[in-house]
C-alpha cells in the first residue's frame, strides 16, 4: 500500500483556533500518526502550507514544528497546484473573499464557522462551490465529541421513545479584561468586527439540533449585552457592541422544543461548560461534551411537590453513567476526527457531496441571522427547509 500526499493551505495558522485545534491537535497529529488510512489501504499524508499576515509568527511556528512551507502571500498559495485543499480559520469578517478566491482557484474548501457574516453571502458561497463542483466542508466538531457520540447511540437505539424537549446550557464567565485578562479575544464583543455570541454559537446549535433531533421550523430569541465595558489585549477600555448572551427557543419539525441558553456572563454550576438535557417518553439523558447520564422510564422516581418539607432525596443518584465503550484507544479529538473524515472524502474521490458542506454552514448562518432578527423584532420567525443551494 502506498502513502499519498495531499496539500493543504492553512490560512490563519497563527490564530487561537487555527493553531491549537487545527494545526497542532489535528493536522500535525494526523501527520505524526502516518496520515489517514483510505478505504483501499493507502494512507493520505497532509503536506502543509501555512499562510498568515505576520511573517515572524509564521516563521516561528514553522520552525517549532519542523515545517518548511509558509507564506504571507495568499494569492501565490492559491495559485500553487501542489495544494488542493484550502482551509480558513481567520476572523469571520475576512472569510468571504478568501473562500470565493479559493473556490475560483479550484480548491477543495474546508473552513471554520460561521462561513460568512450574512446568510446572503453564505448562500452565495454554497452556490459558487456547487457551480464549481468543489468539495466543501464546514467544521462540525461538536458532533464528533464523546458526549454527543454517546447521545447519537442513545437516539439510534430508540432509548428516548418520542423526544419531547431538549434544554441546553452553554457558557462561562469571560473576564472583562480589566483586573484580569479576558480569555476570549476582544473582537468577540464588537459587532462591527463580526463578534457576538449569536454569530459564534447559533451555527453550532444549528448543526447539533438538525443532525441529532430534526429540522428547525421556527425561532424565538432574546439577546443581551450584559457587560457593556471591556478591556482589549492592550489594556484599553472599549465599548462592547455585540451580544454576550442569548436565550433561544427552537421548535422542530415533529414538535420537539429546544431551549438553548448561551452566555459569556454566567458562572458554571454544572459538570461541563455545555450541557443538554433530553427528555423523552421512555427516558431522559443529561449529556455534556464528554459525559452522558441516563434515566430510563422504569427507574424514574416519583417526586411529590411539597415546598413546606425539606426534600432529602438525592436526585443525582437516580442517573446512570453511559460508558465510553470505545475500545482501548478511547475517543479522539473532535476536530481531528472531522479532519480525517473530510480528508478521506477528498482522498477517496467521493464527489462534491460532503454532508457538512457550505450549504450546511449557510443554514447555521441563517439561524444566527434569524435569531438576531427575532430578538430585535420581538417575534417568532419561521424557517423554510433549505436543502438546495
Indicate the topology.
Elements: E1 3-11, H1 16-32, E2 36-37, E3 43-51, H2 55-64, E4 70-71, H3 74-79, E5 85-88, H4 95-104, E6 108-111, H5 119-132, E7 136-138, H6 146-157, E8 163-171, H7 197-212, E9 216-224, E10 229-231, E11 237-239, E12 245-252, E13 257-263, E14 274-280, E15 283-287, E16 292-296, E17 320-321, H8 334-347, H9 358-377, E18 381-382
Parallel strand pairs: 1-3, 1-5, 3-4, 5-6, 6-7, 8-13
Antiparallel strand pairs: 2-3, 8-14, 9-12, 9-18, 10-11, 12-13, 14-15, 15-16, 16-17
Provide a descriptive summary of the structure in words.
With 389 residues, the protein is α/β, with parallel strands linked by helices. It is built from nine helices and 18 strands. It has helices at residues 16-32, 55-64, 74-79, 95-104, 119-132, 146-157, 197-212, 334-347, 358-377, and strands at residues 3-11, 36-37, 43-51, 70-71, 85-88, 108-111, 136-138, 163-171, 216-224, 229-231, 237-239, 245-252, 257-263, 274-280, 283-287, 292-296, 320-321, 381-382. Strands 17-16-15-14-8-13-12-9-18 form a nine-stranded mixed sheet. Strands 1, 2, 3, 4, 5, 6 and 7 form a seven-stranded mixed sheet that branches. Strand 6 (108-111), helix 5 and strand 7 (136-138) form a beta-alpha-beta unit. The two termini are 38 Å apart. The model has no long low-confidence stretch (mean pLDDT 95).
